[in-house]
Amino acid sequence: MRGIVYKSTGSWYSVKDDSGKMWNARIKGIFKLDNITSSNPIAVGDVVDFEQEELKEQTVIITKIHDRKNYINRQSPRVKSQQHIIAANIDQSLLIATIKEPRTSQGFIDRFLVTCEMYHVPAIILFNKTDLYKEKDMAKFEMMKQVYERIGYKVAGISLKHGQNIDDIKELLTQKITLVSGHSGVGKSTFINSIVPDATIKTQNISGWSGKGQHTTTFAEMYELYFGGKIIDTPGMKEFGLTGVERHELSGYFPEMRERINDCQFNNCLHINEPGCAVKQGVIDGKIDEERYISYYNILESIPGQTW
Ligand SMILES: Nc1nc2c(ncn2[C@@H]2O[C@H](COP(=O)(O)OP(=O)(O)O)[C@@H](O)[C@H]2O)c(=O)[nH]1
Ligand SMILES: [Mg+2]
Ligand SMILES: [Zn+2]
Description:
By secondary structure, the protein is of the alpha/beta class. It has helices at 106-118, 135-150, 166-173, 188-195, 255-258, 278-284, 290-302; strands spanning 2-8, 13-17, 22-27, 47-52, 59-65, 71-75, 83-88, 92-98, 123-128, 154-157, 177-181, 221-224, 230-233. β4 (47-52) and β5 form a beta hairpin. α1 packs across α7. The longest helix is centred in the middle third of the chain and has 16 residues, at 135-150. The chain is globular. Magnesium ion binds next to α4.
């Protein structure tokens, strides 16, 4: 039998077969995957073959993992040298951000986008809670929308509270597998509850919001959308690690830099203080957003590398 993994709790998996029946599955033995060492061999979104363990039992054994189209991982929280696969076979990645309550920093958005670029996954940014935006928040939102749309990302303002723009978003999600992420408190659970039938994911009480993440669970879970498509929730997951990025590769994950790096005088240009740098010229000319360049610089600084 064949199915898709909807949930993983470490040693047990929920697998839905082609007829829609959900099975409790586990693995036997060790799976060797690609060339990565991961702390979890099977992730949400994986397509697997399985067989019934024993006829009388309701549990099944996963016998094969189909090749992944892609996967998103992060550094394992427990073993630093290992990767933890968050989800596999996703079509797009959606970030829920907010201008206020809480404010999502541009640095956080840019790290998210770099991760999407690394995995070749299209990204959508939604700014939620537009009902709370005052004039200056609205101006900030419009500015961000312009910055990110100009470099090829889909951006929209929504209010889950008032249902503003939700129909457009549903259209973007239809028939796709979408990974949802964002800071705690931005409205992820509210969002999923509004598009998944029978979802009863707990939302946070705004008065209890402390500015810190409150969830500790880190198990991703997939849900079926009532209008077709699937969504993967990543509760408690703050950020996907930018693991495996080389300093020289980083600018290739900024689309507006990527299109200029061939014009830099040096082919190993890091776009910091090299002469004849087309990226820095782009910033001076206003073609590259300064905040984006600052994000680039900050991420570059965070990548351990040769110093000269
Ligand atoms: N004003 C306003 N509050 C919202 C909106 N969407 C969600 N919230 C509130 O924000 C808080 C956090 O939402 P939640 O879905 O738990 O966020 P999560 O931590 O990302 O899952 C809850 O109190 C929600 O009711 C919105 O569009 N406008
Ligand atoms: Mg939540
Ligand atoms: Zn350069």
